[in-house]
What does this fold into?
Amino acid sequence: MQLGDVVAGQTLNVVDVSAQVTSSAAANGNSLIGGTEGDALRLRSSQTMQGDAAGSTTLTLGGDTRGRVTSVTQARANYLASTAINAPMAVEAEQTGDGDVTASSRITGVDARLISGGQIASGAFGNTVALAGAASGSHRTAVTGNIDQTMKGDVRATNTASPRYAPAPTDFSSEAVANAVQVSTGPSSNQELTVRQRSSGAEVEADTSVWAGNAWDLTGRARAAGNQAAFYNQGGSLVTTTEQDNSAQIRGSVELSSYDFGAATAAADAIGNNVVVGNNDIYVDIDNIQNNTGGVEASASFVGQKGYDAYVGANAAGNSITGYACAQCGGDLNANNVQTNAGNVRAMTNTTINGQGRNVIAGSNAVGNAATFYVTGNGGGG
It folds into this structure.
């Protein structure tokens, strides 16, 4: 149990750097990482974060930065990761976040010249469970158990910058997720898991705002989610029971601009509850309940004076589930699905070219409840 706040900050102030610039900042309330190889593991974990978790990065890049700029800023309330190799793993995990989780990344000033481009990411995560399993030969791996996650605080990630010049691919992203579970197992493996997730904070927000002078290949991305659970398997049965409830306001926003531009991409995604269950083998059994009462909004915009290609997209959903099995294996998929959405769902795009451009491709998609179940020949690729 973590009672107080956890804060991590990184500040760089450099001029005319001839090589790369790399920075990272991570604030973690509770973290547990473990695993087993060859012996059965029974894992019981209870994590509670009552304080706030905040990670921040500030970059002041004067003159020409000739090397690639890489910056990762993260904040987490609770984190659990475990791996099982040639052995079964039974998990009983409970995570609770009461405080706010915030991550912010900022490139200050208007003089930054990113000659080699860069990748700048900001991520805020309430509760996270990541499990993996693998087996070989005559051994088998099974991942079973129960996971319970509750996030009561706000979760926010922001990423802002105003570079003058970026003649190489440059990517700015923000991601905010209240509760996340991901389980991946390989051949000779199976899963049987129950996951319950509740997101009840006021807001889950991811915001990316970038204003450039001249950018040749510029991308701004934002993704916000209340609850997400993903299960992937390659060599045995996959049985999942999921129950998700979101009442937080979910918002993903991208504001991108460049006076001169080559290619510019603005992509925003927002979702209340999301489940993906995929098995590259025969048997899949899904029992899913999703309830969203919070508003969900995705907005993406781009403004340019003169350039070539602009791509702008926004996707918003109250509840979404995707399940698939392998047709070539004789796939057997069974699904019991109940979805209820009572929140407003909005997806908006706005593109403005004040001078001249070549291609403008824009699209927005908003859906209350989405369910897709299919049997595919290559385990989810088409």
Observations:
- The longest strand covers residues 203-233.
- The CA atoms of residues 159 and 208 lie 5 Å apart.
- DSSP finds no helices and 23 strands in the chain.
- The chain has one domain: 100-376.
